[in-house]
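REQUEST ID: PR-0412
SUBMITTED BY: lab tech R.K.
PRIORITY: routine
TASK: structure prediction, single protein chain
INPUT:
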Amino acid sequence: MLYNIGEWKVSKANAEKFLEFMGRFVEWQKQNRKKFYYVQSNFGILKNEDQTAETWMYVDVYEDQESYDKFGEDFRRSNPDWAGFLRLRDEFESLIVPNSYNCEVIVTKPELCIE
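STATUS: complete
OUTPUT:
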């Protein structure tokens, strides 16, 4: 399995507006599910004591490196099918704390899995 994990901050002043935006963002992905190669995607807020901002994150689960790479290849193309997503991404960037977005990829070691 491969996990793509992103994290960013949203000021408390933008919290309601951002939550409404995320509803539209998730709905777009559901309506365009075939464009995404993840097995599952989850969004949430990290629990913390910060009084000024919420820390949001997503965890996208991919079956393997190949499916993750395929998504990356499709997404980078100048494909008009991605126009709706790119508009949402621009709106996303306007609502978050500047320079707070960070993304990491984790590749699991099956031999170290505990079930």
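NOTES: The first strand starts at residue 2 and ends at 11.
REVIEWED BY: pending
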